[in-house]
């Protein structure tokens, strides 16, 4: 899967755009100054860099030229409102740039990204449609990001940080599998699974518990709820991929 990295200032229109692109590509966002992203780019080695026009207007030529000098093979696309991009173009001394205009139009954004990546838009969409969907539920943001990174090459990965958010997302799309944290405030994993099994629409969804609890006295009551598996933290990529493959292939 091709990896995209978006850096700089992002408004809600930008985040909505990246949420859409996330269905088809690995997507990372860094709301940081451009000149502080060099090490991230070096480690992540993205296939395409998305740069905020808003951020570039602070130093139109220097910031972008520095990035391109250090990463000469890395294609760059800007994102931002049309009027801001026009202002930037007038100030920028360099080659021609393409911009994802915000608010974005789905087909235009996909065409531009696929053109820059030199991949078939049709093939990218076909591959995304074949992927099964996993909903990861955990109140810890680090765990959510880690699991997404481990699984997004083969699956569509959606995230929920609470029991309430879980059912909000289930009402929009029923996943092929739920990875469920046991220890959460307000509604813990057991309560979430009880509610899932009590609802005819959701009761057939496979659920794997992901937790640091190894006490059999706490695990035994879960058997009646028919979980499809039980993974202990800390999680390794080999184990999570193996357990997920056992359940949904």
Structure overview:
There is one protein chain. Helix content is 43%, strand content 20%. The protein has helices at 12-21, 38-44, 53-56, 62-70, 82-91, 106-117, 121-130, 141-151, 163-172, 189-197, 216-219, 237-248; strands at residues 3-7, 26-30, 48-52, 76-81, 99-102, 133-137, 156-160, 177-181, 207-211, 229-232. The protein has a 5-stranded parallel sheet. The two termini are 18 Å apart. The model has no long low-confidence stretch (mean pLDDT 88).
Inertia-based shape: elongated
**Tally of alpha and pi helices:** 12
Major β-sheet profile:
5 strands, parallel
Level of helix content?
Answer: 40-55%
SSE inventory with pairings:
Elements: E1 3-7, H1 12-21, E2 26-30, H2 38-44, E3 48-52, H3 53-56, H4 62-70, E4 76-81, H5 82-91, E5 99-102, H6 106-117, H7 121-130, E6 133-137, H8 141-151, E7 156-160, H9 163-172, E8 177-181, H10 189-197, E9 207-211, H11 216-219, E10 229-232, H12 237-248
Parallel strand pairs: 1-2, 1-3, 3-4, 4-5, 6-7, 6-8, 8-9, 9-10
Structure in a nutshell:
By secondary structure, the protein is an alpha/beta fold. The chain has twelve helices and ten strands.
Features of the shown structure:
249 residues, 5-stranded parallel beta sheet, alpha/beta, 12 helices, 10 strands, single chain, elongated
